[in-house]
Amino acid sequence: MKKAIAEFVGTFTLVLFGCGAAVIAGMGTGATSIDVLGIAFAFGLSIVAMAYGIGMISGCHINPAVSLGVHLAGRMSAGEMVTYWIAQVLGALAGAAVLAIILSGKASGWDGGLGQNGWGAGYLGEYNLLSALVFEVVATFLFLVCILGVTQKGAPSHLAGLAIGLTLVVIHIVGINVTGVSVNPARSLGPAIIGAGSNPGALAQVWLFIVAPLIGGAAAGILFKTGLLSAESED
């Protein structure tokens, strides 16, 4: 129960602060580099804060793709992974719901945006499906390489949260204009479901942000399990 609560709180924080920075700071299609950097650091620093806040309890996955990678690397059971997934999705839904409540009080009105992920015409850089798929798979894979590498035996664990957070920052700097950056199915599901009434297109596209991160996370987990990317066997 402690681990589930920690994962709920962590994912709630990531969605509220990360997606909140994207919509409250007002990033639009003509975003400047300052807008991108600010949003990137909001997501990354949310990870850093939660890594040190809940890391000792649950490991601070706050991402179903991370939990899948950790499971396939041999570091957690399937049952525990499913518990994490449920807590993460519920946390993301709660974070998006609270963000929607805050935005609904904007005097000049609100278009219903909650930082939903997407691709194609009318979405940020208007990249196509292939670009979105490739970015999300590769970025999630590299994210998990960092996470699984810095948390393995012998790694400097006191720096893990900072390394993981900064990796998420650079992923966002590169990918915000491609997909808005998911690399996290829960982060995508929360805003897509809560904001479905005003943006049904995001819900229609959310499948990619479930499938692609899970593929990338699984690939990294398997490589660590085989020992190809680990300092020692994950047995």
UniProtKB/TrEMBL annotation:
Oxidoreductase among keywords: no
Keywords, in A-Z order: Cell membrane, Membrane, Transmembrane, Transmembrane helix, Transport
Transmembrane domains' residue ranges: 12-31, 37-62, 82-103, 129-150, 162-183, 203-224
One term of GO molecular function: water channel activity
Subcellular location: Cell membrane
Keyword Endoplasmic reticulum: no
InterPro entries associated with the record: Aquaporin-like, Aquaporin_transptr, MIP, MIP_CS
Lineage top rank: taxon: Bacteria
Major subcellular location class: membrane
Membrane topology listed for this record: Multi-pass membrane protein
Gene3D superfamilies: Glycerol uptake facilitator protein
GO cellular component terms, A-Z: plasma membrane
Similarity section: Belongs to the MIP/aquaporin (TC 1.A.8) family.
Protein name in the entry: Aquaporin Z 2
Taxonomic lineage: Bacteria, Pseudomonadati, Pseudomonadota, Alphaproteobacteria, Hyphomicrobiales
Gene name, Swiss-Prot/TrEMBL: aqpZ2
